[in-house]
Specification:
The complex is a heterodimer of chains A (278) and B (263). Chain A has 278 residues and is an all-alpha fold. Chain A is built from eleven helices and no strands. The relative contact order of chain A is 0.11. In chain B, helix 6 links the parallel strand 7 and strand 8. Classes of the chains: A mainly alpha (278), B alpha/beta (263).
Chain lengths: 278, 263
């Protein structure tokens, strides 16, 4: 019932607001089929769980139960989201910085490439989560080892794509720059790296996906906080409403982070025509 | 002593140049691309290098630019030996090769940034944008520009370094016929305005006659300079005049294309 009133309330507010706000109206005109489908889907979910009891409890609570968990446990969910965000950002940032540096070195210098590439090819494809046993032994705290694992997961695709972008810089750009009086610093930082940026962003996206996975796994086995921890903790108490509530938060959280990276990409790559849509 | 005087008068001097490349399919064997190339260009002169494709024109230009190293021979700009690429020898390719991540203005500035003199010479950027008529496109990115406009940016980018020699490797080769003729006038205007020594590689004989003071004709396998022709016509030149056409048939004859009919 709560859910019904909420949907009705939001609908009334939106319907009133759109009369005065043109951008909102255009957005709604574009989005209404999606909203209708979403509401219908929630309705179907409600009917098969609460209405006909087709799915076994407690594993499949109805939408209202999930919403109730979201609201009643909001303090802990917010705290978990905050911890996940902090861990994700620290691990991702570290991985990106190290990945960019190693990628540029491998892509530019043939001797670094000779020694670095085999290491990258052998160590890189190992899923970061496979290092968890080792990380638990080596690192003083769960948080530090989890950040390290996320960094490792991000490092591989960022390094790989950066290196290939740098080494595939069009030779004629470098030739032109040389005849304009460019030295090595200019060639690396003002020609090769900008030319590699489209590639680098592919690495950043792949790394972001890998970091989500590693974050959730690391949190559910070692770290005592965050959304991954929350899911396994709620499952331990068989509170599946809370499990789904955490999944809803993850969906919003991860897709927001992904959207922000796309926004950054669109801003940095204004010079490129025809970019991939998100 | 006479020799040094001659060298001082010429902006660019090439003596007995030879270059061979390894054949990719057969390691260990080499193919002679350029042999016994000798010529010199006086300061302020506009010289064209004409020849069929594969005669080594572009290779010769890359050697002069310092992007490749010759097997033997001497390359001098003024009194200095060419040992590598330098801002004193600008190069413009058929593909403008503008940096797509930089706006028109930043592309033109690139040489100043590369040499670390942007701060002192920033005022020149506007002059050069005006010179090639692109003030209105200062903040546009290269993918918004037409072929002719891109090539004008490429010319401004090379000229802002005040090169002693500007090397042009078929710079108008990718343009349509009308844009091309307009750009020939544009390049001539830049040349008259700045009096930069220019070496233009082209396979368009009309373009060479229309633009240059002197034409060097190259023949392939291995590339040699076969003949020099002084074009002593007053500018602006008439592409349909008798004397123009006489030069044309003389060059075609030399390259064995004249008077041939389909067998």
């Amino acid at each position: 019932m709560l859910l019904f009133w909420e949907i009705l309330g939001v609908s009334i507010v939106l319907a009133t607001a759109q009369r005065f706000w043109i951008t909102l109206r255009q957005w709604m005109r574009h989005m209404w089929p999606i909203f209708t489908a979403a509401i219908l889907l929630i309705g179907v979910w409600d009917v098969i769980t609460l209405g006909f009891h087709l799915l076994p409890l407690p594993y499949f609570p109805g939408p209202a139960a999930v919403l109730r968990s979201l609201i009643s446990d909001r303090a802990l969910l917010l705290d978990s989201t905050w911890h996940s965000l902090a861990l994700l950002l620290s691990g991702y940032t570290l991985g990106v910085i190290v990945g960019l540096v190693s990628g540029v070195c491998i892509g530019w210098s043939t001797s670094v490439r000779y020694w670095g590439m085999p290491l990258l090819k052998v160590v890189g494809p190992i899923p970061a989560t496979a290092w968890i046993p080792l990380a638990m032994v080596v690192s003083p705290s769960g948080i530090v080892s989890a950040a390290g694992l996320i960094a490792l997961a991000v490092w591989f695709p960022v390094t790989m794509l950066t290196a290939s972008g740098i080494s595939n810089t069009r030779a004629s750009y470098l030739d032109v720059a040389r005849t304009l009086g460019a030295g090595r610093t200019y060639l690396i930082f003002r020609v090769a790296i900008p030319a590699a940026v489209p590639n680098i962003f592919i690495g950043l996206f792949m790394g972001l996906g890998a970091s989500f996975l590693t974050l959730v796994v690391a949190e559910s086995v070692g770290v005592k906080s965050g959304l991954g921890w929350y899911v396994s903790w709620a499952q331990g108490w068989a509170e599946y409403g809370k499990v789904y509530a955490a999944l809803v938060i993850m969906a919003v959280f991860f897709s927001t982070v992904m959207t922000l990276l796309f926004k950054l990409r669109d801003r940095v790559l204004v010079w490129q025509k025809g970019t991939i849509k998100w | 002593m006479v020799m040094t005087n001659v060298a001082a008068a010429s902006a660019l001097r090439v003596h007995n140049l030879r270059k061979s490349f390894e054949v990719p399919d057969a390691p260990g064997t080499t193919r002679l691309v350029l042999d016994a190339i000798s010529f010199s260009i006086a300061a302020g002169e506009l010289v064209s290098l004409v020849g069929p494709s594969g005669c080594g024109k572009s290779t010769l230009l890359r050697l002069i630019a310092g992007l490749d190293v010759p097997d033997a021979g001497e390359l001098m700009v003024g009194e200095q030996r060419i040992v590598g690429p330098s801002a004193e020898r600008g190069l413009v390719f058929q593909d403008p090769n503008l940096f797509p991540w930089l706006t028109v203005r930043r592309n033109i500035e690139a040489g100043l940034v590369a040499r670390g003199v942007l701060h002192e010479k920033r005022h020149e950027v506007d002059d050069f944008m005006r010179l090639v008529g692109l003030e209105a496109f200062a903040s546009a990115y290269p993918h918004h520009l037409s072929g002719g406009m891109s090539q004008r940016v490429a010319l401004a980018r090379a000229l802002i370094n005040h090169p002693k020699v500007l090397l042009l490797d078929e710079p108008l080769g990718a343009l349509d016929a009308f844009t091309r003729m307009r750009m020939q006038d544009e390049v001539l205007r830049l040349w008259e305005n700045r009096r930069t020594t220019m070496l233009l590689v082209t396979h368009d004989i009309d373009e060479a006659i229309y633009m240059s003071d002197r034409i060097l004709i190259m023949t392939p396998a291995p590339g040699r300079i076969d003949r020099e022709i002084d074009i002593d016509l007053a500018r602006p030149r008439d592409r349909t005049s008798d004397s123009f056409l006489r030069f044309r048939s003389e060059i075609l004859e030399h390259l064995h294309f004249a008077g041939k009919t389909a067998a």
